[in-house]
């Protein structure tokens, strides 16, 4: 015989592997159980990124003494009875797999008491072996304590990511449920320190503020729609509040966090043409539909769902997002913050007002190959390093572009992209020499959501090396005492926020790379915006500074800073010359 039936041990470990992939999966299952037990308070304690300890306590309805030993048995559930029930699941759990799976790959203790019972009970499960039930005094509710996860599956342990990454996954899980259940009080403690705490007041905006910070929460646009039996509710960011990744697009189907590419697409389609390429909105959207119209039993971790009518759901989401966006008319930013000094306080203009540098000589030879518009995408790189022609300023259009005349026609310059490039190169140059730091008259305190604060804390030395002066100040709070002088009067809080956004994009890039990315991001913040009126002197200064850049043709993120309309092109367009 070569075919053998796997031993129970091995079989249950394999099954466990599907449900319990990492510490965050344990946290997810335990939170779901607490919520299914109608808890209004859920407390989560983590040690060693969840490898050492995960403990979830709730004040839910508890487990009876008779039921307690069953909890750790595979396919034992109080939530489903018949196969038909599977088609109208209204609880988060239903497979009866979580506790047995967790129990087979850890040392687990479940302690519980129903409010109506005088005494509670407790049971220990180790590597899948359940011990005796004992009576204990304990408050009503349930505590599940999971220690030494994967102690008996070393291969699993090896595949876990760094503690920081695993912790981040845990934060994300707690965040999701906190958002979906605003009337439940959640508290997440890591190594004894509270990192997330919601009030349970039932106000979803309050939870948004805990997770994303007050500023962001204030800006989020409410979505409320109902059509064809689908109710869509939640919050989306205005088009100018975006992220460079899809991580903050959160979807919930019947209060269950789900991952679904189609939903993400529907959301971004709702923003059609409002978002820049490569930018993604922040969204927290709750879909409520008939349990029979959605199949949640697709995947052991229940993170994926299948809709009966995908098209309807897709349409519903993109339409309601669109409608919410259109109803929200943004305040036009024409003129921008007036009186803001474009080049930053007292920045010495290194090129001097009338300094005579006339690189016309280098122009003549270069100008022929300098036509951005005629180049295919893959030659952008080359274009980036072409020098800027000497430009004669004509003026500003749409308070967004500068028009200039060059030796070979017309140049349209995107003032924001151009300024980004200028700041970026100055920053890099300064970094190699001494960094100029500008002390703030009044230091500024900035608070971040827990996960973001963690990221930032780690990079403080790097940022201080760039001219910031940042110190930690209590949990999740930082004090900014100085910022790089190049940034002028950019708001220190904004500068820090953009740094954190950059950090959030990537898990652990090389320091060298992250430094440039941070600089690029901060420069983007500090650069003049589209829609900002520039005085003729400021316009001229921008052109001159751009001329002296090493890669003047693109912004640090790769967008073109200028478009060239050659005399030749103009002549052809006006029919003065040959066929088009
Ligand atoms: P499922 O949630 O799919 O039913 P689990 O293995 O997660 O399976 O849990 C098994 C059973 O244990 C549940 O059906 C429920 O009756 C009970 N249980 C688990 N956690 C709790 C809790 N925190 N409070 C009350 N009962 C619980
Ligand atoms: Mg469960």
In short:
With 580 residues, the protein is an alpha+beta fold. Strands 1, 2, 3, 4, 5, 6, 7, 8 and 9 form a nine-stranded mixed β-sheet that branches.
Key features of this structure:
580 residues, alpha+beta, five-stranded mixed beta sheet, 18 helices, 25 strands, 23% strand, elongated, binds adenosine-5'-diphosphate, binds magnesium ion
Give an account of the 3D structure.
By secondary structure, this protein is of the alpha+beta class. Helices cover 34% and strands 23% of the residues. Strands 1, 2, 3, 4, 5, 6, 7, 8 and 9 form a nine-stranded mixed beta sheet that branches. A five-stranded mixed beta sheet has the order 10-11-16-13-14. α14 crosses α15 (492-505). Bound molecules: adenosine-5'-diphosphate (ADP) and magnesium ion. Adenosine-5'-diphosphate binds at residues 29, 33-34, 36-37, 58, 60-63, 71, 76-79, 93-100, 142.
Ligand species: adenosine-5'-diphosphate, magnesium ion
Largest sheet features? 9 strands, mixed
| Apparent shape | elongated
How large, in whole angstroms, is the Cα Rg? 29 Å
Mean pLDDT: 81
Strand content: 15-25%
- Strand runs, count: 25
End-to-end distance: 78 Å
């Amino acid at each position: 015989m070569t075919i053998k039936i796997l031993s129970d041990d091995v079989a249950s470990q394999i099954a466990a592997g599907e449900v319990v992939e990492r510490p965050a999966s344990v946290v997810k299952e335990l939170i779901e159980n607490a919520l299914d037990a109608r808890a209004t308070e859920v407390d989560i304690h983590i040690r060693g990124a969840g490898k050492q300890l995960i403990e979830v306590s709730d004040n839910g309805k508890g487990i009876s003494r008779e039921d307690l030993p069953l909890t750790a048995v595979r396919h034992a559930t109080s939530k489903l009875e018949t196969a038909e029930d599977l088609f109208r699941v209204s609880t988060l759990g239903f497979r009866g797999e979580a506790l047995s799976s967790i129990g087979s790959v850890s040392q687990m203790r479940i302690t519980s008491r129903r409010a109506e019972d005088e005494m509670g009970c407790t049971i220990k499960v180790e590597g899948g072996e359940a011990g005796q039930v004992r009576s204990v005094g304990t408050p009503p509710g349930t505590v599940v304590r999971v220690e030494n996860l994967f102690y008996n599956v070393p291969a699993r342990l090896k595949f876990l990511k760094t503690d920081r990454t695993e912790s981040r996954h845990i934060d994300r899980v707690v965040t999701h449920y906190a958002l979906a259940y605003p009337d439940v009080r959640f508290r997440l403690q890591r190594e004894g320190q509270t990192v997330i705490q919601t009030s349970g007041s039932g106000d979803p905006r309050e939870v948004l503020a805990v997770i994303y910070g007050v500023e962001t929460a204030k800006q989020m646009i409410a979505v409320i729609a109902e059509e064809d039996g689908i109710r869509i509710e939640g919050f989306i960011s205005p088009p100018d509040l975006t992220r460079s990744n899809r991580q903050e697009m959160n979807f919930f189907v019947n209060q269950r966090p789900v991952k679904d590419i189609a939903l993400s697409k529907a959301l971004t389609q709702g923003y059609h043409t409002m978002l820049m390429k490569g930018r993604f909105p922040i969204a927290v959207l709750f879909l409520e539909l008939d349990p029979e119209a959605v199949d949640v039993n697709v995947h052991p971790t229940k993170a994926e769902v299948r809709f009966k009518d995908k098209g309807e759901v897709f349409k519903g989401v993109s339409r309601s997002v669109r409608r919410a966006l259109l109803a929200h008319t943004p305040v036009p930013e024409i003129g921008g913050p007036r009186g803001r000094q474009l080049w930053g306080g007292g920045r010495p203009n290194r090129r001097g007002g009338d300094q005579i540098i006339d690189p016309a000589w280098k122009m003549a030879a270069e100008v022929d190959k300098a036509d951005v518009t005629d180049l295919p995408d893959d030659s952008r790189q080359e274009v980036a390093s072409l020098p800027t022609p000497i430009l004669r300023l004509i003026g500003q259009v749409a308070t967004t572009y500068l028009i200039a005349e060059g030796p070979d026609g017309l140049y349209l310059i995107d003032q924001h992209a151009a300024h980004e490039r200028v700041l970026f190169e100055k920053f890099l140059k300064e970094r190699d020499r001494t960094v100029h730091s500008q002390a703030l008259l009044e230091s500024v305190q900035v608070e971040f959501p827990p996960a973001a604060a963690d990221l930032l804390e780690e990079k403080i030395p790097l940022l201080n090396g760039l001219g910031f002066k940042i110190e930690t100040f209590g949990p999740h709070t930082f004090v900014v005492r100085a910022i790089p002088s190049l940034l002028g009067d950019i708001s220190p809080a904004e500068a820090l926020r953009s740094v954190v956004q950059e950090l959030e994009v990537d898990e652990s890039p090389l320091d060298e790379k992250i430094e440039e990315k941070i600089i690029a991001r901060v420069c983007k913040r500090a650069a003049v915006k589209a829609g900002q009126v520039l005085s003729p002197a400021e316009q001229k200064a921008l052109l001159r500074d751009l001329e002296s850049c090493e890669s003047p043709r693109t912004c640090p993120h790769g967008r073109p800073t200028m478009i060239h309309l050659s005399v030749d092109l103009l002549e052809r367009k006006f029919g003065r010359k040959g066929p088009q």
